[in-house]
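Below is a filled-in request sheet from our internal design queue. Each sheet records the structural input a requester submitted and the sequence that came back. We keep these sheets so that new team members can see what a complete request looks like end to end.

REQUESTER: design group, bay 2
PRIORITY: normal
MODE: inverse folding
CHAIN LENGTH: 205
BACKBONE (tokenized):
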């Protein structure tokens, strides 16, 4: 029987990416909106990606009584002590704006040389099963922050996030290229292995 899992997001692109990587399992993934969660806002007030991911998964699980999956992502810049981190989406305040966030980040790194502009995108995914068992997977992709935006694909900090091995920003990659190396993709690969191990361990009990 297909297991229904509620995605704690309304993002269809995210839904498709997760579905494609977890397609080996008998999961029917649906967004929280389609599952009838309503327009109640989930307050993400954790100070780590793990905490916020769990907050979202738990809120959906407790309200709908179904298995849930949530992710929390952000950019961590070494020179800034890991900022903007969990505040990535609202780095420049409300209402959230990718352009203002990028401008603030460039200003914070003004005159910082290239070798000190190392950064990584991080995603933490929490999967909460119907019985309350929880799996947490983390994925990262290493890069650096460029001196000016480049490229028109993607969103968020993609125009500033350079992949040194490719000599391109995330915003200069095709969707397939980005997905093949993205932090969310990496976290999902880790999660896939964790799900396999979970099923193996529970079936042996």
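RETURNED SEQUENCE:
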């Amino acid at each position: 029987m297909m297991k229904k899992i509620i995605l704690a997001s309304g993002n269809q692109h995210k839904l498709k990416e997760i579905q494609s990587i977890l397609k080996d399992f008998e999961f029917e993934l649906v967004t929280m909106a389609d599952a009838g969660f309503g327009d109640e806002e989930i307050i993400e007030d954790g100070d780590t990606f793990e905490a916020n991911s769990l907050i979202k998964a738990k809120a959906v699980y407790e309200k709908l009584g179904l298995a849930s999956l949530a992710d929390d992502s952000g950019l961590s810049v070494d020179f800034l002590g890991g900022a903007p981190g969990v505040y990535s989406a609202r780095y420049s305040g409300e209402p959230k704006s990718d352009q203002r966030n990028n401008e603030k980040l460039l200003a914070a790194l003004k005159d910082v040389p290239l070798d000190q502009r190392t950064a990584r995108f991080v995603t933490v995914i929490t999967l909460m099963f119907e019985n309350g068992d929880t799996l947490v997977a983390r994925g990262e992709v290493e890069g650096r922050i460029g001196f000016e935006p480049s490229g028109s694909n993607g969103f968020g900090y993609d125009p500033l996030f350079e992949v040194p091995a490719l000599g391109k920003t995330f915003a200069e990659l095709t969707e397939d290229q980005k997905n093949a190396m993205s932090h969310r993709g990496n976290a999902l690969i880790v999660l896939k292995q964790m799900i396999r191990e979970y099923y193996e361990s529970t079936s042996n009990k």
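SHEET NOTES:
- The beta strands are 3-7, 27-31, 67-77, 118-128, 134-145, 161-163, 168-169.
- The chain has five helices and seven strands.
FILED BY: M.R.
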